[in-house]
Design brief:
single chain; about 350 residues; alpha+beta; Alpha-Beta Plaits; five-stranded mixed sheet; two-stranded antiparallel sheet; about 25% helix; about 10% strand; globular; binds iron/sulfur cluster
Length: about 350
């Protein structure tokens, strides 16, 4: 366990599936050099296959006794999808705009399909996913080279690129399938929680760019942070698939209310809810019932009395308030380590011979 832990809370009631987060991450970290197929941040439609395809069925994580479970490494062709480009050059010659290969699968392939029968009881919602920077990471336990490490200062999980030999046990061990193999350098790579930004007091790109203002970032022990308030004070943010045993540090405010269903004559079925509670329990555990109740009570309070601290936080009036990154803490840590001013607090991630900066 690290000294302190950074965490992210995502409010699923506000995610509009616009993929701005995905693009901001991709353009910054993964649009080049063997990382083209990787989505350190992806937003998937639930119910759906997710990314990589059927990731919830690919193993990894821990059983109730704390034993690491076997898992598989997804296949590029069938589970991730081979990235394609478009025929930009030939448009001028009159060709229609189309992919330059025949794609058969890719991230977001089943976007907005969801489940149920339109228009009676169909439903879906979006789940944005990054690495959970787990307290008990399956990736770290699975690595025979001790290449995966968790920073003591903030709990960010990174890969020491000098030690990594590309064995890919980490990918099998992560039940969220949030580590990827880079074939160009034969190393594994993953979300780094934008640590170079964080150390300068800036939130991760996915969080800062999020147009829905769904992402809060802060330290779990910082009682003034909205992350603390949502996770510990109001207890309305829950980890995804906590049953995998990795103790994720990304938390979700679950969808609190879906529209009612229609009967066969098109009449509203009063009191019905399109999202089955069993599905939410599978994703977020039994606590989700209490959370949904709390959210609905607080929403009513806000509407009727105009008062609710919880709703005020979730509405996120001030973008700035959503992030508390404690820049002083990082500066102090760097100073204690004897680092030069503005140097990164830990250089293991960038010390690989295939990465710039060393
Ligand atoms: S989500 Fe996966 S890759 Fe990220 S820390 Fe947890 S086990 Fe490791
Ligand atoms: S940018 Fe925000 S609202 Fe848009 S898909 Fe990402 S998490 Fe959802």
């Amino acid at each position: 366990m690290s000294k302190r832990q950074l965490a992210m809370v995502m409010d699923l009631n506000k995610c509009i599936g616009c993929q701005t987060c995905t693009v901001s991450c991709k353009t910054q970290w993964t649009n080049r050099e063997g990382r083209e197929y990787m989505y350190w941040n992806n937003v998937e439609t639930y119910p759906g296959s997710g990314y990589p395809k059927n990731w919830m069925k690919l193993g990894g994580g821990f059983d109730k006794n704390g034993d690491l479970q076997p898992g598989v490494v997804p296949n590029l062709q069938s589970d991730y999808g081979v990235p394609w480009d478009f025929n930009y050059e030939s448009i001028a010659e009159g060709e229609i705009f189309k992919p330059d290969s025949e794609p058969s699968w890719g991230p977001n392939w089943d976007e907005d399909e969801g489940a149920g029968v339109f228009p009676r009881d169909n439903y879906f919602f979006y789940i944005p996913r990054i690495c959970n920077h787990c307290t008990n990471p399956g990736c770290l336990s699975a690595c025979p080279r001790d290449a995966v490490f968790k920073r003591d200062e903030d709990g960010v999980v990174l890969i020491d690129l000098k030690k990594c030999q590309g064995y890919r046990y980490c990918i099998a061990g992560c039940p969220y399938k949030k580590i990827y193999f880079n074939p160009k350098i034969s190393k594994s790579q993953k979300c780094i929680l934008c640590f170079p930004r964080i150390e300068k007091g800036l939130p991760p790109a996915c969080a800062q760019q999020c147009v829905g203002r769904i992402r809060f970032v802060g330290f779990l022990d910082d009682e003034d942070s909205q992350v603390y308030k949502l996770v510990k004070k109001f207890k309305v943010a829950l980890p995804l698939r906590d049953d995998y045993g990795t103790q994720p540090n990304v938390y979700y405010v679950p969808p609190s209310k879906a529209p009612a269903k229609f009967d066969s004559e098109g009449k509203v079925i009063e009191g019905s809810d399109r999202i089955p509670m069993e599905e939410l329990e599978m994703l977020f555990g039994k606590e989700v019932r209490r959370v949904v109740k709390t959210l609905n009570i607080e929403m009513k309070n806000k509407k009727e009395k105009g008062e609710s601290e919880l709703m005020d936080i979730l509405i996120a009036y001030n973008h700035h308030d959503m992030f508390r990154l404690d820049n002083d803490y990082y500066q102090k840590t760097a100073k204690e380590k004897g680092n030069k001013p503005f140097d990164l607090i830990d250089r293991r991630y960038i010390a690989g011979k295939h990465t710039k900066g060393e």
